[in-house]
Amino acid sequence: MSKIMTVDVLSSIKGAQPSEAVNKLFEVIKNANTTNNNAFNNHNNALSLNDLREDLVVDSSEIEKQIIIENFPKEKNGYLVVSKVIEE
Amino acid sequence: MSSQIHHIHQQLMNKEITCTSLVQEKLDGLKQNTNNTVNTLLDTMALDLAAKVDAKIANGETIGLLEGIPFGIKDVYMLQGTYTTASSDLLKNYKSAYTATAIQKLLDAGAIPLVKENCDSFGHGSSSENTIFGAVKNAINPDLVGGGSSGGSAVNVAKDYTVFSIGGDTGGSVRQPAGYNNVYGLKPTYGRISRYGLMAYASSTDCVGPIAKSIEDIRIVLNVMSGKDIKDQTSYACAEISQEAISSSETIKTVGYFKNFIETDAIDTKIKSDFLETIEKIKAKGIQVKALDFFESETLVSTYYTLAMAETASNLSRLDGTNYGNRIESDNLKETYAVTRSENFSEETKRRIVGGNQVLSQGFSDEIYLKGLALRDNISENFENDFNEVDIIISPVTPSTPPKIGDSLKNPHAMYLSDAYTVGFSLGQLPTLTIPQGTTTGLQITAAKHNDELVLKFANFLKDTI
């Protein structure tokens, strides 16, 4: 299998092509000057590991389960139907 | 305008109106409106809740300040049992299985949800035209766009169909429609309000934001929704903002503005002259005003969109029609994914997903995505330095007046550039409020991170000053 994947495959969108409007934005980034190019200095979004929630299983309510099943796209004889599995 | 929440609360307590009649009146307004603000009307739920409030009042019980106050919800928030479509074909029949934390807090306080509001699909847009429910029409001039992406929410508040509405702001989606429709709209500090149950667009800048007709109503609703939530690890605990704390602006000595926002040909001449006039009025009150250097608009917009597209490509990859959504069956699993997504996503959403996958792929990520992250760091550092110099930064909300319906869809790049004044504050995760004063599309007031109180304080000062 080829290692090169096109954006339509990456995006699961048929016939998708890079757009001119978006490429214009990327050109600006390519040509911009930064005072550092090291993204690992990023200090905006790190979270403390000391403040994580407990890793507990919480059972959903009955109504929540019922709506989740209701949202499922296809049902047959009481089973939820998914598409054929990839054969490759 | 003074607080509608306090006013309605008094009317309910004094039995001048019933909650049922109030809710019915608002529902009638929403039902008949021609601005395309409604995706789903929650009439049965709202009237049931109103009857309970009336029963409580009839029994002589006291009610909370938000109890019985009707509000609207942008159609990207989960509210158990209601349709949550994100204005998209893919989710047009999707029902929320659970309720967003911010919305749950409002329900717990007794506020009554009336409507799921029209918006740009998945928040992808600045005009609320990218929707399957018809373009949202501006509250002041229906030939113009309502702004976006929280256009339906801002128009509903402006037209008094809701007392307040809850929008979502990733790059300006609360502040810009608030400006276009002459109401208040707040993007709080990132993390002040839990994002749990808000459909993710760009997780690192997504914010829950209230839209209302007064600073006091923004304060009340902000207080109720704020605080740490274990379901959103980026949320944080914060103190309530009191009415007294924002009544005096004595602590504000210095205000800054970005000179490159103003000294450009891209800004409408009237917006520019009105903004400069506002600066003079602030100076006349003895406040020092400093002109600050900032990044070029193109750099801000490109940095924001690069990161937002990368994040939305990742966030929306789950929408494949397997467990929920409008699945379109094809030959095999991969084809089913591709056909479902191709047929159900709008052109703008597809453009953003594709752009995001472009920058995240090998060969592009170093040159564009990682550089975008580095630029974001530079922008944040710039803000940190600025807030050592000034207490508040003010800026116009938009460079131009609202476009005509139909124009934004023709030129996506121009639409991206119209976000030039809002996206920087999103990247900096700073609290920023749009006020319906100062220019035709309002003014933004920004303070340092976590200083939402100072923003409201300065808004109160400007209300009496300009």
From TrEMBL, chain B:
Please provide the record's keywords in A-Z order.
Transferase
Record Pfam families: Amidase
InterPro entries in the record: Amidase, Amidase_CS, Amidase_dom, AS_sf
> Where does the record place a coiled coil?
none
Q: Name one GO molecular function term.
A: transferase activity
The organism's place on the tree of life at top rank: Bacteria
Query: Is Metal-binding tagged as a keyword?
Result: no
Domain (Amidase) spans 23-456
Q: Which family does it belong to?
A: Belongs to the amidase family.
Q: Which PANTHER family match?
A: GLUTAMYL-TRNA(GLN) AMIDOTRANSFERASE SUBUNIT A, MITOCHONDRIAL, TRANSAMIDASE
Indicate what this protein is called per its UniProt record: Asp-tRNA(Asn)/Glu-tRNA(Gln) amidotransferase subunit GatA
Name its species: Algibacter marinivivus
